[in-house]
Amino acid sequence: MTAIDAKAPSIRNRLAHALLWWTLAWGVGVSVAVGWAAQYEVEELLDESLHATALVLARALALAGDGALDAAPQPVVNEADFAWQLVAPDGAVLRRSSNAPALALQKVSTAGFTEVSGWRVFGVATGREGRMLYAAHTTKERAEAGTEVAMSAVLAALSIGLLGHLWLRLRVRRELEPLEGLSERLATHDPLDLARGLGPAEREELVPVHRAIDDLGQRLARRVAHERAFASHAAHALRTPLAGMEAQLAVAQREVPTELQPRLQRVRDASGRLQRVVRSLLDLFRVGAEARRSDVDLKALLAHLPVEGLDVRADAATLHADPDLLAAALANLLDNAQRYGARHVEVSQAARGTLRLHDDGRGATPERLVDLRAALAAQDYEEHTGLGLMLADLVARAHGGALTLPEVAKGFAVELRLGPPPTG
Hints:
Elements: H1 11-64, E1 83-87, E2 93-96, E3 112-116, E4 119-125, E5 132-138, H2 139-188, H3 207-255, H4 261-284, E6 294-297, H5 298-303, E7 311-314, E8 318-321, H6 323-339, E9 344-351, E10 354-359, H7 366-378, H8 387-398, E11 402-404, E12 412-417
Parallel strand pairs: 7-9
Antiparallel strand pairs: 1-2, 1-5, 3-4, 4-5, 6-8, 9-10, 10-12, 11-12
Helix pairs in contact: 1-2, 3-4, 4-6, 6-8
């Protein structure tokens, strides 16, 4: 099972961003609605207060009478945001509050609500000789009152939205903790380790998921075991007859006439190639096991991997790797170099734990290099890479590294990067 990509955003982060944007959109929408509703309600309340105040003033002035009009005390009204006028039928202002305009708010007797040059006016008849009482608020003060209330409502809505967002994030975090725990387990889970398994589920809802993953691991383990057993038996069954063929060809080459020896030599070369393929198959099915690392002398290892017709020059270096797997990878890479026309190969340690093989063969076109790199990165070997590159990459990955193909001016180069040895 492939490990979960650590660079990919986690479920928690994606949901946290979604919740943030959802909360912001919800908060803005609710705030606009609350602000509009608050302003509407403030307008309604101010109109009701204006209407009630006008009726009270009209009643008070009507009860005062003509003779007592001047002597009657003025009603106590907060004139900071309110004005009133008592207007005669001819439009003359008989009485007014201190902040009311000197001219009549309405030139023609008008009852009810009206808007007049910066004033919200409510007119009511006093019941005496056609006089009208006009009570008014300035539209500026009404707007300020509505804005203050709307802002307070908006801030309250945003505060509630923020608290709701924090609460939702906390709930989402708690709900997703089991899923993140499962993701962490899967990142290091070996489906072939049947004894260990995935472990108990943290939530009841995840029990079927755990059971399905464990069942899948069992099926994979059985399939891999069958394939490895088949490949191992088939390869071992082939080695004996191939070794016998090689021995018989060597004897025959010594006994046949000189003119037939080149032909037998080509047959021996093909037999040797077939034996190397069989060994590679055995090593390939060993790659799935853990690498058994030890100190490996590079020159000594290459000395045991001669490829006829290929001049291999290596730096003196010591690597900490599995000698069998490293030998299999190098043998296949050297065989690849020879097949593609190389006569010389330089083997060096490009960096600590990284082997670089550079040959003078035909190399590969830029398009082919792009295809090979993509296949190695995705481990999509089928129909993209040969056995040599595939085995070398698997060996590198068994050591915690990978195979890379650097740019070179001439020939072909590969870098076998081995990861650091496990600690503890």
